Amino acid sequence: MPEPFYQIEIESDPNNLITVEEFVNYFAKDLGLTDEQLSVLLLAVTEATTNAIIHANKCDISKLVRIHAQIENSKLVVKIKDEGKGFDPTTLPDPTHPENLLKDSGRGVFLM
């Protein structure tokens, strides 16, 4: 029997992050994740979705973000797809560098 999967599609509006959090809470409960697992999962999914909305899709509500979650080989796999052009993560500034420590952004990719 195939494993259950969960998916959602949202417009690229930061206000939709609440819907994403509700979606993650729903499937985490359905899968029996612990509170600690849920906390880590919420951080990763909301960071990735925020990046997709703001940096990839430039908050253009005509562009969508798709989130798909499924158990594969006993592991939870979450895929987040946007309509942006992509980027090279090796070009991102190091958030642990002293000049970046007090910035209020720039840690998302490293947190994930």
Secondary structure topology:
Blueprint: E1 5-11, H1 17-31, H2 35-56, E2 64-72, E3 75-81, H3 108-111
Antiparallel strand pairs: 1-2, 2-3
Helix pairs in contact: 1-2
Structure, described:
With 112 residues, the chain is an alpha+beta fold. The chain has one domain (5-111): Histidine kinase-like ATPase, C-terminal domain (Heat Shock Protein 90), CATH 3.30.565. It is 37% helix and 21% strand. The chain is built from 3 helices and 3 strands, in the order βααββα. Strands 1-2-3 form a 3-stranded antiparallel β-sheet, covered by helices on one side. Helix 1 (17-31) packs antiparallel against helix 2. The protein is globular. The chain starts with a strand and ends with a helix. 14% of the residues are buried. The mean pLDDT is 91.
Features:
alpha+beta, Heat Shock Protein 90, globular, 3-stranded antiparallel beta sheet, 112 residues, single chain
Q: In what order do the strands lie side by side in the largest sheet?
A: 1-2-3
Could you state the CATH homologous superfamily? Histidine kinase-like ATPase, C-terminal domain
Number of domains: 1
Q: What separation lies between the terminal Cα atoms?
A: 31 Å
What's a concise summary of this model?
The chain is of the alpha+beta class and 112 residues long. It has helices spanning 17-31, 35-56, 108-111, and strands spanning 5-11, 64-72, 75-81.
